[in-house]
Amino acid sequence: MAKETAKIAELDERKVKILTAVIRNYLETGEPVGSRTISKYTDLKLSSATIRNEMSDLEELGYIFQPHTSSGRIPTDKGYRFYVDNLMSEKEREIQEKEELIIEKADKLEAVLKQAAKLLATNTNYTALVSTPETHRNKLKFLQLSKVEKDSLLAVIVVEGNIIKNKMIHTEEEIDEDTILKLNLLLNTHLNGLSLEEINLGLITLLKERAGIHTEIVSSVIDAVADAIRADEDLEIYTSGATNMFKYPELMDSGKATDIINTFENKEELEKIVNASLAENNAGKNEMQVYIGKEMASPAMQDCSVVTATYDLGDGMRGTIGIVGPKRMDYEKAMGTMQSLMNQLDEIYKKK
Amino acid sequence: MAKETAKIAELDERKVKILTAVIRNYLETGEPVGSRTISKYTDLKLSSATIRNEMSDLEELGYIFQPHTSSGRIPTDKGYRFYVDNLMSEKEREIQEKEELIIEKADKLEAVLKQAAKLLATNTNYTALVSTPETHRNKLKFLQLSKVEKDSLLAVIVVEGNIIKNKMIHTEEEIDEDTILKLNLLLNTHLNGLSLEEINLGLITLLKERAGIHTEIVSSVIDAVADAIRADEDLEIYTSGATNMFKYPELMDSGKATDIINTFENKEELEKIVNASLAENNAGKNEMQVYIGKEMASPAMQDCSVVTATYDLGDGMRGTIGIVGPKRMDYEKAMGTMQSLMNQLDEIYKKK
DNA sequence: GATTAGCACTCATTCAAGTCGAGTGCTAAC
DNA sequence: GTTAGCACTCGACTTGAATGAGTGCTAATC
Question: Angle CA(B13)–CA(B15)–CA(B21) in degrees, nearest 5?
Fold first, then answer.
């Protein structure tokens, strides 16, 4: 990333113009682009022969390549990267915000996220990907045990951001109302206000000691509650418009579209993407990321690009939204639509 | 369905044998099957010429057809139907139960269902489909309002089968603990033990009257609770192994696989299948259904077959499990695997 | 020294013609 | 009723030529 300026120095102005032309053209058509096309397309009046020489240089520098001898050129990952980093800004600003996405205000977060994914997918013709927010840094806000039946308790847990967790707890013998009251008091005084990740094994054993007499049943209940709190990261990832991948011949024909869609069913692979994005955003400013081809952690995705962003609903609820498309995806449009969606999410949740 | 006996009468024993041979062969290969193949494959020693005549008859009767002049025959929907209804029983019994699926006992129903779907998909190489159980006939078991913050209440609702629903309710002004206590009492005495569908608008207005003084806020809370109870059918449908559809050339090549996978993203279409199955099982005995081609409500699915079954976890929690495959799916295997899964679900939930 | 025109060469794509083989329907013989 | 034989159909595959987009290189031009 620090190489950006170096990269620009590597190319004189004319080379940049030609590279841009090649990429723009390829983004549109998906076909290799030849010197003749460029010589007409650009405003710089140059013959195809000159363009050929320049393109030859660009190939040597690794920005474009030929799929086979004597065919037009196609951008490499490096080419796309250069384009996204340096060449896009002007056009981007124009397009951005043109889109009008409308998210209905649903009161279930899950529903909102699913809708957001669908919206992205249908608007861009790529595949959208949305993760539920991570909550383990959120603080416990409310905790309550209630007796539902003779032998079963219900634990209800609310954390910041109004994420609600439930757990039914079966007990060997009936617990009397009095004990439940005490348990509630105990749990609340010790756990309330702590973040979920702070509620660890040590704390739990401490709690059990405090519980005093009722060791048998009570400790099992406390265990169950702890279980529910840490409920091994119920991260969900929704996708939408997976089959849009079929719309791009370069993926379809080579059979890679199938592989890609397959990995959309694979939570582990998706997590890689989500986590990469979250990590990058944790470190610094809240911006969009673009991962191109091999930059992606997931091997099956190396023929794609992904535009990701981190949404922040306040109360530390952060998750990832992504748009997956072919490498020649319309980055401006994808990023524009994404931005517009983020703004809308912001608006909805800031007002609350 | 009442035509079954008629159907048998329509075909003499030899025709049945030939039809069986055609279908079996086509199920295996996916290629049109010719007279010569049959003449060797079957035990009845007949020349290809005789077979040809018989096949010609079978075509006239609508059990098989030629994709183009002078090519082998392929079963029609009617052919498959005949096969499933009359010809399968012997082989089915042998195969059934061979499979050993192992569902880990998870305590979240959702997790169990997802796992079941995955299991079915990987075992059969088809696409699996699982719906969450319907709950509107279930009875309300527990209802509690709690104050989580100054201006927000949490409603927790438990229905038979330990399905838990939550709803955060924001209030304009703070509600004091006393009122909440009264509300809880009121709601529980009137609603407890009723099935969700019995809690209708009339009952709700009645409740509001009983509430007395606090009309303003209280009624809005009651509304919210009613909302949560009726939470417009939070039916979920999970799919697994959607991309298995790509494994079958007859779907892949014609591009229909894409359409089919598309409809897997479409909840409405899936609901059609689920509901059809539930309806049929509501009426009668608990058996597996097979829908072949046009018998399916969903138009995009007319090149598939679906094997469905209704699971019953007790407490009136019934949902649908389905296996979607090409028409030439291995019905025995699909039904066998399904049966084995159902047995296992039974075991897990009967023991509880 | 940079640019251009011209030319030979490469290589994927397209299309028609030809071959092959699986399969059928029909007729005549068994 | 069954079978053998034969002409015919039609998709699948192969081949080879034509096409055309595109390149690299060289020599002429600015």
Answer: 105
Give the bridge partners for B311, in sequence order: B319
Are A113 and A129 in contact by the 8 Å Cβ rule? The answer is no
A12 φ, ψ (degrees, to nearest 5): -80, 175
Q: Residue B290 is encoded by which pair of tokens?
A: 């097979």
Mention every residue, 6+ apart, whose C-beta is less than 8 A from residue A202. Answer: none
Collapsing DSSP to helix, strand or coil, B71 comes out as: coil
Q: Are A327 and A305 in contact (CB under 8 A)?
A: yes
Option in B156, B246, B265 nearest A242 (CB): B265
Q: Is the pLDDT of residue B4 over 60?
A: no
pLDDT at B162: 83
How far apart, in whole angstroms, are the C-alpha atoms of residue B92 and residue B100?
Answer: 16
Window from A238-252, A326-340, B223-237, B238-252 with minimum mean pLDDT: B223-237
Cα dihedral A43, A48, A50, A54, rounded to 10, equals 80
- Beta-bridged to residue B326, according to DSSP, are B304
Find and list the nucleotides of strand C having atoms within 7 Å of a protein beta carbon.
3-6, 9-12, 22-27
Return the SS3 of A68.
coil
The rounded distance, in Å, linking the Cα atoms of A32 and A249 is 13
Angstrom distance (rounded) from CA B195 to CA B191:
9
Burial B172-182 (b: 16+ CB within 10 A, else e): eeebeeebbee
**Phi then psi for A288, rounded to 5 degrees?**
-80, 145
Residue B200, SS3? coil
Phi, psi of A10 (to 5 degrees): -65, -25
Q: Which of B282, B162, B203, B274 is closest to A151 using CA atoms?
A: B162
Q: Long-range contacts made by residues B215-220, C-beta under 8 angstroms, separation at least 24? A: B216/B172, B217/B171, B217/B172, B217/B173, B217/B175, B218/B179, B218/B183, B220/B171, B220/B172
A128 DSSP β-pair partners: A240, A323
Nearest-angstrom CA–CA distance, B307 and B291: 7
CA of B303 to C1' of D4 (A): 39
Amino acid at the residue A273: I
What value, to the nearest 5°, has the Cα angle with vertex B246 and ends B290 and B264?
60
In this model, does residue B292 exceed pLDDT 80? yes
DSSP sequence for B255-315 = THHHHHHHHHT-HHHHHHHHHHHHHHHHHS----EEEEGGGSS-GGGTTEEEEEEEEE-ST
Q: Could you give the percent of chain A with pLDDT greater than 70?
A: 88
Tell how many helices (H) and how many strands (E) occur in chain B. 14, 10
The spacing between the Cα labelled CA in A70 and the C1' in D17, in angstroms, equals: 21
User: Is A349:A343 a contact under the CB 8 Å cutoff?
Assistant: no
> What is the rounded distance in angstroms from the CA atom of residue B58 to the CA atom of residue B46?
16
Helix (H) or strand (E) holding A234: none
Strands A304-312 and A289-292: antiparallel
- In the predicted structure, residue B2 carries a pLDDT above the cut 50: no
CA angle B17, B19, B22 (to 5 degrees): 110
Report how far residue A27's alpha carbon sits from residue A79's, in angstroms, rounded to the nearest whole number. Answer: 12
Distance from A262 to chain B by nearest Cα, in Å?
Answer: 6
A8 in reach of chain B (CB within 8 A) = no
**d(C-alpha B300, C-alpha B258), whole Å:** 10
Strand partners, B155: B145, B167
Amino acid identity at B92: E
What is the rounded distance in angstroms from the CA atom of residue B166 to the CA atom of residue A158? 10
Interface check for B151 against chain A (CB to CB < 8 A): the answer is no
Q: How far is CA A21 from CA A9, A65, A88, in A?
A: 19, 14, 12
A294: number of Cβ within 10 Å: 13
